[in-house]
Amino acid sequence: MVSCPHAEIPLGNWVEAVSRPDFGSRLAVPLAGETVPAGFPSPAEEYLEKRLDLNEHLVARPEATYFVRVSGDSMIGAAIHHGDLLVVDRSVEPKPGNVVIALVDGEFTVKRLRRTPFGLELAPENPEYTPIQLNDDTDFLVWGVVLHVVHKV
């Protein structure tokens, strides 16, 4: 069974790498009214349709959401790179296939939760790392489901 701690549990010493969304201030930036094709360019129809506040776009449940910065390269296959910012929701029920923040034997990690014929595992998305098998002897807790990744291009 996979569990996720209640959103009101303090983050303890981990807060140095974690921050919560600030809804006291708003920063609405222009949002173009057109989508941008990733294939052939389309005729330019430049106009701005409305404004977008990224908090509204990225954070559905502020009381259960936190941001955490990634260190390491074990998730590069999932387009999660060293230095990226993850938006994590602690109220989402973790399911196999989700990318999760987990506490395993006292260490935090970001991995994909995966079901195998032998049970659950935390799978890296980099062949240089091995999956973490979860069993009754593993001290394991999911601290949230990663919903968004923010990184520089």
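[next item in queue]
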Amino acid sequence: MNLITRRTALKLGAAGVATLAAAGPAAALVKITVTGGDFVPLPIAVPDFASSDPAFGREVTEIVRANLKRSGLFSIIDPASLPQQVGDINAAPAFESWRGTGADALVMGQVDRLGQVESSVRVWDTQAAAQVVGKSYATDSSSYRRIAHQVSDAIYTSLTGEGGYFDTRIVYVSESGPKANRVKRLAIMDQDGANVQYLTQGKTLALTPRFSPSSQMLSYMSFDDGNPQVYLLDLASGQQQRIGSFGEMTFSPRFSPDGRSVVFSVEQGGATNLYSLPIGSQQPQQLTSGAAIDTGASYSPDGARIVFESDRGGSQQIYMMGASGGGAQRISYGDGAYSTPVWSPKGDLIAFTKQQGGQFHIGTMQPDGSGERVLVSSYHAEGPTWAPNGRVMMFFKDPGGNDGPRLYSVDIWGRNEQQISTETFASDPAWSPLLT
């Protein structure tokens, strides 16, 4: 094993991320397959990260442990039972001792505030006695939680072979106040509920926020001008602008995969059709026509196709067409009314909401409409959004009565459903791409 010194590792990591040493076994320790309920989380040992400030090292470690546990793929071994309470990235582990804890994988990390925050991590396969991955990160001191999320992504990816999703943000509609007079604001937070910021004041209604591919812009619908209209918000400057004046109402916007245009719905003369508009242009292209309600458009990852909901056939169903419009084909044929289709970042699945049998259902289907799978059923569940790895999604549930909506996540096998903590009631989440 060719270990290198921490100093060398941090030097390599000065540009942000670097590989510490040649990776060990390429095979993932966690095999992610659609096998149902017999999945057993991988036992993993994560001693506290070494640090000149032990409390800081422990705090970063707790974020990493929480991310891994929340994924549902890992079982964190009680830190108090570990043979080593603090990690050492510069020493090869005593593998026999670690195997005695039941750990199949071991994480050793170090983190320090040295003007900026610097962290190194090594992941070991205890059964093979070999390093799986070693990486180093650096960021400014105000973003130390991002270091923990980046480390979590490195661990997740090295052990599962899938992309991570922890260094991401969620934008959603924050709901507060009495049910009959709810104040709804746009809010943004880390995927674990930390670092909440409110983007609008709640003086007017703002709904359906969606990230641009760069995560620097949002599209959303606002009542600032009285009627629903589509706006863009620059997250860095806080500047917002209405995309233009088209029809009586514009709503349900979503960026194209290249971020250069927005697809949205326009209501005019009682009909609702889909349009696309290059950012900065005032000449939208009409994609659908007719008296139906066409809305909820979502691009395929390659930008070639659009999936959307429409009642053109007499009931609310999911349709697919080319990105330039025309030739729409129905793809949903199950019982009930289908809505909010969202294409997976991997392109292999489409998430949807379905109302059937007096319940709401969150599910997935393949792009040709086959393989429908219901993941969640509830009194009111709606608005699925994909994590960037296409293996986890978030949505909201509202139990009704005097309570309010809450955010939840679930994996694509319907496992590991759990509530995401928010300061207020929350609905209509949208998951950002990876920030790195």
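[queue empty]
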